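Open question from group meeting: does this chain pack into something compact, or does most of it stay loose? Before anyone orders reagents, we agreed to write out a predicted structure and look at it together. Recording both the input and the output here so the notebook holds the full record.
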Amino acid sequence: MLIGVPKEIKVHEYRVGLVPAGVRELVHNGHKVLVQAGAGAGIGFDDEAYKKAGASIAKNAAEVFAKADMIVKVKEPQANECRMLRKGQVLFTYLHLAPDPEQTKGLIKSGATAIAYETVTSDRGGLPLLAPMSEVAGRMSIQVGAFYLQKEPGGSGVLLGGVPGVLPAKVTVIGGGVSGTHAAQMAAGLGADVTILDRSIDRMRQLDDIFGGRVKTAYSTVDAIESHVVESDLVIGAVLVPGAAAPKLVTRKMIKRMRPGSVLVDIAIDQGGCFETSKATTHSNPTFVVDGVVHYCVANMPGAVARTSTFALNNATLPFTMALANKGYKAALAADKHLLNGLNVHEGMLTYKAVSDALKLKFTPSQKALGI
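Structure tokens returned:
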């Protein structure tokens, strides 16, 4: 199989679909890899590193899309990339279709087979290809939150961990999954007063064991969200409904009651965001202010730490990339129910129920679409 790796074109996105080690593994297994010139430059890999690993170098994205049997990316395809996809071609990347009807329609129109990292599952019920970036985003959320709490960038002038004689910042993390847990870990490590809101009693028991009482937990209700949010200096939105649009759990009325200069970081923005006032931003213009509260809603947070993120992502995706290449996409999907859960679009059919529900588009079960 010929695997194509285009350069990412989303604003300030420096990650890359394959690192040279992944290229070498694919080539070792008899495949060919075509990498767009400069694709790895943002994380310190020049074209020569890819050549040494066995890849060929393409002058531009058009060449990659025209020749490749499978495209391996990081971020969702932009409009011009969707137009370059074709029937019979596989796209393996993050998609986040539920809040993005234009991308969804573009993929349907292309006829390509689109497999989303974020909906591939595991035997343990997790999302193994989303988890590495959730870990990064969770940890980053506290870094950026602490920065924007400073006075100069618009915050209230609060030090996250306080000092002796001065109380630490109050941090509320909504969602106790992977990103929320890593956010809480970072915030607690810096000495903040941290509360995690979640709706799973079992998960809260796990979190209590993990943190040994250093982090508080509370059952998530409208009342609990309101009472914690309005008193917080920093709120982290870490809610995930796999493949579906994030629920709007924090209302504008709640935000209006927060102290001016407080900060909201919406990790769920890829899925539409979990704050009523959220709108996607970029690393070049990451924040905006609503009712005196700073909002950080960057849709590709891990792109800011591109080298760490790329290695973490490649470690998780490479086994699935290998399976798709070695077996062919149809056999690979038929053999692995978890990889099959990643199928979102196939030859003009939308195959992921949560996306079809969110966008009110016709749904076709994956097995029926593939004829397996």
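Observations to bring back to the group:
The chain has a mean pLDDT of 97.
The chain has 15 helices and 15 strands.
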